[in-house]
Amino acid sequence: MLELRNITAGYDNGTVLLDVSLTVPDRATVALLGPNGAGKTTLLRVASGLLKPYSGQILINGQDVTGDPAFKVSRKGIIHVPEGRGIFPSLTVSDNILLQSPAGQFKKGFRTATSTFPRLQERARQIARTLSGGEQQMLALSHAYVSDPQVVLLDEVSMGLAPKIVEEIFDYLADLGRQGVAQLLVEQYVGQALRMADYVYILDRGRISFAGEPGEISEETIMNSYLGSLAS
Ligand SMILES: Nc1ncnc2c1ncn2[C@@H]1O[C@H](COP(=O)(O)OP(=O)(O)OP(=O)(O)O)[C@@H](O)[C@H]1O
């Protein structure tokens, strides 16, 4: 279980998150929604140890990891698939999978990645930057399969992809969920996120404005709240 407790965080030019608390229970899919600039990416960066919060705590299975660097947080089972895919564009597919795999487990990692995403097998020697957008996203997502994580933080993994590929990517996320991997999902496709999620949080200007189950809120209410946020 991943818990963020009363997180306040930001950058040199100002505070972005104000007293944010959020829990990702074991095996659950949690959607983190909100308008542009609300602080969703910042929250994922705090959760993965990339950004140290000003105050508040980050706990993994009850253990306080606040202030731990990202590599230590990832060793505890929190994998971050960042906005913009987070692959090494000038390396081959195979080398990217090598870097995603736990130390000494490349062969197993490669088998897992290519049985999940057969297209990566065909393109193993290809330089990652030359893959299609969908294939690059599959390569980014393979990190979540090969490293046997507890929780995957997914930042707009559907961004910039054709609708058919987006559907395919969501199928992979559903599959990952069935394997028992918990997910914290930042997503622009609100309807799809609501269908997949066990719990939903809405972030508005750095504060949680809603926390509950998907059945408690409609897509329309969420979209209207985005517009309200932009108008004010
Ligand atoms: N590295 C940074 N340095 C300074 N300010 C930043 C940095 N990254 C983000 N911000 C600012 O923090 C605020 C929240 O940004 P963040 O990317 O977390 O929002 P978001 O909800 O993910 O937005 P979007 O949906 O547009 O991706 C914005 O005002 C942004 O300009």
Total tally of structural domains: 2
Task: Report the β-strand fraction as a percent range.
Answer: 25-35%
Radius of gyration: 17 Å
Please give the share of residues in helix: 25-40%
CATH topology term of the largest domain:
Rossmann fold
Q: What general form does the structure show?
A: globular
The assigned structural class equals alpha/beta
Q: Count of DSSP helices?
A: 9
Strand order of the largest sheet: 6-7-8-3-9-10
Explain what this protein looks like in three dimensions.
Residues 2-230 form the ABC transporter domain. It holds the Pfam family ABC_tran. This is ABC transporter ATP-binding protein. Belongs to the ABC transporter superfamily. It comes from Sporichthya brevicatena. The structure is a single chain. The protein has 232 residues and is α/β, with parallel strands linked by helices. It has two domains: 2-77 and 149-231, 3-Layer(aba) Sandwich (Rossmann fold); 84-148, no CATH class. Helices cover 38% and strands 26% of the residues. It contains nine helices and ten strands. It has helices at residues 40-47, 70-75, 93-100, 106-116, 118-122, 133-146, 163-178, 190-196, 219-231; strands spanning 2-11, 14-24, 29-33, 55-60, 63-64, 78-81, 151-155, 182-186, 199-204, 207-212. The strands form two sheets. The chain has a six-stranded mixed beta sheet with strand order 6-7-8-3-9-10, with helices on both faces. A four-stranded antiparallel beta sheet has the order 2-1-4-5, covered by helices on one side. A hairpin with a 2-residue loop joins β9 and β10. α3 packs parallel to α6 (133-146) and α4 packs across α6. 36% of the residues are buried. The structure holds adenosine-5'-triphosphate. Adenosine-5'-triphosphate is lined by residues 11, 13, 16, 34, 36-42. Adenosine-5'-triphosphate binds at residues 11, 13, 16, 34, 36-42.
